[in-house]
């Protein structure tokens, strides 16, 4: 059947009209691109303080209901370089069907973004974060978003890169080689009872193939911080990658890999950090004390203690380590405030810890450490630590045997100008701290020690005078032992010196008093 000529002409007119409308739409979109880019850039910069956003280009696509932003840069006003974020392309695709019911819906895709930060930029952001972001009595951005038209969004950030630089000439930036972020159902109208409507997944890969994954749910519009409930997995995280960061805390991290599984929950009512399994393998870590950083170390220690006390007092905060393991590791203390420097350490270290928490209802935590003190002395330490209520409450047993005394030579030179050639050291202690009291003892032992002392005509034998000085001046009563052996027992029973001290402060003070103050003065007196 042939179509009448009039009808054919009508279809031609309709087609031509639609084509003209399409062309006009494309032309209008092209003409509106630059004004819309300027308006978007101006609006964003009016809304955020302390940062400046530039948008290289904007393209509207009417047929696909999408908008592309090109070459988007975010800079901090006080430290503009490097850019906080550089995003080659941001695409927002609108969905038509929700519009018919009065809801905005879109998927935002950001590919290959680069995020950077320096120490100066982070400090600037923290200073701003500590200030109120909105004036008292006004709504924050979260409330403003909740009161706008209903929306539902999805965010897909793929193949991202992150770098953090301490800003020092010799520092190597901490890098995340690739990360992907997915947030689905980001909405200001969650279903009734849905306290965490958004599903989120974050996956990050470091240059050494270390992998971090966070999977869970969140409400990103709660304030002051998003409500999150997520599982965390860390696989073979090489600690040396974070050396530029931890150096500021006087830590030297030469090696070590971390594996961890846990769960994080945060809301306005409670914060729970539960580490189900932690493994630190082949770590090489030293804490380095120096005269130049002494004041900073004390300030930092006070902040840590104050924060720990705050967490302990806050019933809404719960921290739990179900099981933790350290294996095949070496950890030490380096003192660069003396001449010469010296290092105390434990090698071949293995540690098992269970049920460590800041909450009484979780019960006591246990820890066992084995290794070789100063590389030679078999060491076993066992502890039972009960959550502070509010004072330290723990039992600690220490046994160190057959430690070669020559390993202490740098320390002995630093404090006592002594230089040993042979001999062994042992140390035994049982301590209990409860109800602001210490009960227990320390028992150090020196055996077959030979000292090289130029002031005594290079006499290699440790004289009885030195033994008596060690015992009589410092350690107290000498027991009936063989002639080549010195054993003393010092009773440490009494009140805790500082009732406000934390558990770890008490442990540190006990070690300092029992080891440094007990043994070193004896060598110093005997060889002087």
From TrEMBL:
<keyword id="KW-0472">Membrane</keyword>
<feature type="transmembrane region" description="Helical">
    <location>
        <begin position="12"/>
        <end position="32"/>
    </location>
</feature>
<dbReference type="InterPro" id="IPR008023">
    <property type="entry name" value="DUF748"/>
</dbReference>
<keyword id="KW-1133">Transmembrane helix</keyword>
<keyword id="KW-0812">Transmembrane</keyword>
<dbReference type="Pfam" id="PF05359">
    <property type="entry name" value="DUF748"/>
</dbReference>
<protein>
    <recommendedName>
        <fullName>AsmA domain-containing protein</fullName>
    </recommendedName>
</protein>
């Amino acid at each position: 059947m042939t179509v009448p000529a009039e009808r054919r002409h009508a279809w031609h007119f309709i087609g031509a009209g639609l084509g003209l409308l399409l062309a006009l739409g494309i032309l209008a979109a092209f003409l509106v691109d630059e004004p819309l880019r300027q308006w978007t850039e101006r609006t964003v910069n009016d809304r955020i303080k302390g940062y400046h956003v530039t948008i290289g280009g904007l393209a509207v696509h009417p047929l696909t209901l999408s908008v592309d932003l090109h070459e988007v840069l975010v800079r901090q006003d006080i430290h503009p370089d490097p850019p906080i974020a550089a995003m080659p392309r941001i695409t927002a695709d609108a969905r038509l069907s929700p519009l018919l019911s009065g809801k905005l819906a879109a998927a935002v895709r950001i590919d290959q973004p680069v995020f950077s930060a320096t120490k100066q930029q982070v400090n600037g952001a923290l200073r701003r974060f500590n200030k109120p972001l909105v004036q008292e009595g006004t709504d924050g951005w979260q409330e403003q978003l909740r009161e706008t038209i209903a929306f539902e969004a999805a965010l897909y950030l793929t193949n991202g890169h992150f770098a953090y630089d301490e800003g020092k000439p010799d520092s190597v930036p901490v890098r995340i080689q690739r990360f992907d972020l997915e947030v689905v159902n980001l909405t200001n109208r969650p279903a009734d009872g849905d306290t965490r409507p958004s599903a989120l997944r974050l996956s990050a890969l470091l240059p050494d193939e270390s992998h971090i994954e966070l999977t869970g749910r969140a409400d990103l519009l709660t304030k002051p911080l998003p409500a999150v409930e997520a599982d965390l997995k860390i696989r073979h995280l090489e600690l040396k990658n974070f050396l530029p960061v931890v150096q500021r805390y006087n830590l030297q991290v030469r090696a070590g890999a971390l594996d961890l599984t846990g769960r994080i929950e945060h809301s306005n009512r409670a914060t729970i950090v539960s580490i189900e399994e932690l493994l630190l393998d082949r770590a090489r870590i030293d804490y380095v004390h120096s005269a130049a950083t002494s004041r900073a170390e004390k300030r930092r220690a006070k902040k840590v203690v104050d924060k720990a006390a705050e967490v302990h007092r806050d019933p809404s905060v719960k921290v739990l380590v179900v099981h933790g393991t350290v294996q095949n590791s070496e950890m030490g203390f380096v003192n660069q405030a003396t001449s010469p420097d010296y290092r105390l350490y434990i090698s071949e270290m293995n540690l098992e810890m269970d049920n460590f928490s800041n909450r009484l209802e979780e019960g006591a935590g246990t820890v066992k450490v084995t290794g070789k003190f100063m590389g030679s002395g078999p060491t076993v330490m066992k502890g039972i630590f009960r959550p502070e209520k509010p004072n330290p409450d723990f039992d600690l047993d220490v046994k160190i045997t057959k430690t070669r005394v020559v390993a202490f030579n740098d320390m002995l030179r630093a404090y006592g100008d002594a230089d040993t050639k042979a001999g062994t050291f042992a140390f035994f202690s049982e301590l209990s701290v409860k109800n602001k009291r210490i009960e227990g003892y320390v028992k150090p032992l020196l055996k077959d020690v030979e000292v090289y002392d130029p002031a005594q005509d290079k006499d290699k034998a440790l004289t009885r005078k030195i033994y008596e000085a060690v015992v009589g001046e410092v350690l107290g009563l000498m027991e009936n032992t063989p002639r080549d052996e010195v054993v003393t027992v010092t009773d440490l029973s009494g009140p805790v010196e500082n009732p406000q001290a934390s558990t770890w402060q008490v442990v540190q003070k006990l070690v300092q008093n029992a080891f440094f103050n007990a043994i070193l003065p004896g060598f110093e007196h005997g060889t002087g």
